[in-house]
Amino acid sequence: VEKIEKQLASLRIAKRSMLSEEPAYLLDIDVSKPAQSESSRFVAVSCSNKSIRVYNRETLNFLREYSSHPGILNGVRFAHACDSTVFSACSDGTVKCWDIRLATQKAVQVFSGYPSNVFISFDINCSDLLICAGTEKVEKDTFLVFWDARGITNCASATKEPLGVYCESHNDDITKICFHPVEPNLVVSGSTDGLVNVFDINKDNEDDALISTCNSDSSVSFIGWSGKDYKQVYCMTHDEGFCWWDIAQLDTEEPITLLHVLDVRDAVCGENDSLHYLVGGLYHEKADKLFLIGGASSGNVYLIGCGTDGLSLVGTLCGGHSATVRSFCWNLADESLLTGGEDAQLLLWKPRAVERSLAKKSSMKIPSSVQKRVRVHNTSLKSGRK
């Protein structure tokens, strides 16, 4: 674990993407899964201007953009078996599939929901057979909607109807969905109702499928799997709380809660510039350790180690972003980290890297008239910048 922590602490900026003509917040990042023995080739980013941008994984050179979206994008995911296939969920009630080898702006497949569906989360399972998307609450309804994802490549522009829905396990917006990394039938969902539900979708109905319900006591902002054989589930909340559960203990007398931190900002102190928010987490298989990623409004990124005895700061990444970091993607193969933020920048961090590209950008945020009049906290925010 110490070796891994040293590697994380030695991360430096290796590459920085060029700013596009229309700067936008970078909300979600995914890297293509390596095809055969190759390393991953592509990075896909969903942006606040309703577009998906695709970059070369090593150089961060811009490759193409998909912008034909009538609604707000929520997430981007590559297929596991084909590194040129990327999916996105949209508030217009669809999940779209894009083939980045094609010059067309048209989705190769559209997975349509029901008329009232507004999708705010989604994922595709590890066998690329199933897609699941979560909806906003409309009147009294919130849905987990499932589709058969097979036949993507030979079914140009076909629209697929849902296989079915789960509609009884959450009673508010379903903010996150995450399939199990190796078990294609297991999926976990998180909601603003505070519940984190684990389902076995091989079961015949929703009641039987619901294996576990964990309560975070707050609105869920991020969920993931961790631990040996990925038998643990963790979540972060919109008020910067953290919960961690061991699903393997469900049938035992042992408590399933491994750790519950009401406010991570109080538990972890940053250097110079305190921790303001959480972005997400990642389980490191080699080290058998869970890490969290947080940040400060100055753009600093914090790497936090997670144990049953509490949280500890592993390292701080400074000098990269100039505004809030909204997204990240960790590549365990080469210990590299991609981060995207409200400064419209995509950064690639590698152990002991030396940056040979552009200088740090200033924030793209435009101060409001209220900020101009009041100018609260300006000095304290700048103190942590390099």
Structure overview:
- The protein is mainly beta and 386 residues long.
- It has a single domain (1-351), classed as 7 Propeller (Methylamine Dehydrogenase, Chain H), CATH 2.130.10.10.
- It contains five helices and 29 strands.
- Strands 6-7-8-9-13 form a five-stranded mixed sheet, with no helix packed on it. The protein has a four-stranded antiparallel sheet with strand order 1-29-28-27.
- The longest helix has 8 residues, at 2-9.
- The two termini are 29 Å apart.
- Mean pLDDT is 86; it is low at 357-386.
The CATH architecture can be named as 7 Propeller
Distance between the termini: 29 Å
Sheet having the most strands: 5 strands, mixed
Strand order of the largest sheet: 6-7-8-9-13
Q: Provide the number of structural domains.
A: 1
CATH topology: Methylamine Dehydrogenase, Chain H
Structure classification:
mainly beta
Principal-axis shape: globular
Name the poorly predicted regions.
Answer: 357-386
Number of strands: 29
Radius of gyration: 20 Å
How many helices?
Answer: 5
Q: Mean pLDDT across all residues, rounded?
A: 86
CATH superfamily: YVTN repeat-like/Quinoprotein amine dehydrogenase
What is the percent of helical residues?
under 10%
Strand content: 35-45%
What is the class in the CATH system?
Mainly Beta
